[in-house]
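During the reporting period the student researcher (J.K.) took over the structure-prediction task from the postdoctoral fellow and processed the backlog of single-chain submissions. One of the processed entries is reproduced below for the supervisory committee.
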Amino acid sequence: MKPQVRVLGIDDAPFKFGDKKTTVIGVVTRIPSYIEAVLKTEVEVDGSDACDKLEAMINSSRYKEQLKLVMLDGVALGGFNVIDIDELHKKIGLPVITITREEPNFEAMEKALKEHFEDWQKRLDIIKKGELFKIKTAHKPIFVKFTGMDLEDVKRIIDQSTIRGALPEPIRVAHLIASGVVSGESYGRA
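J.K. obtained the following structure tokens:
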């Protein structure tokens, strides 16, 4: 991808498990770090509306036609409100990448899902869907899944959009804004 492409980074805000909804922030970033816009929606905590809510937020944005891809901080928002990235890709017509700092512990996720959800198998299948790649960064490796682009382009966009640490700026900034909006001040690793 050429420099200065517009990427939408998405992360959810902190929430309590008694909350019905949580805020989700999207940051339109011209790579590597120029922030052009902030988008906002809400999803149900542990619900099943994340894909639809992201589709609506992205497709209704005046920046939609300029975006080249979407980066998600993980495959779920608001706890276990999982996102089928292939479905989201089809609905928005853009490549989608999920990024996590730690390698997912599928056994722990399965245990938690079984304890709390009747549709645990469906959620687990979405979480496990697709190949997981470990990508080296200057800081430490990250783990990604993606659709709508090839691995070399994924590596290139992560490299172009990561300024410090391991997380690309669109996700890092979305995390900071989401936690700041809800908590009054951003905190946590971003």
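The committee noted the following: The helical segments are 50-59, 85-92, 106-116, 120-128, 151-161, 169-183.
J.K. will present the remaining backlog at the next meeting.
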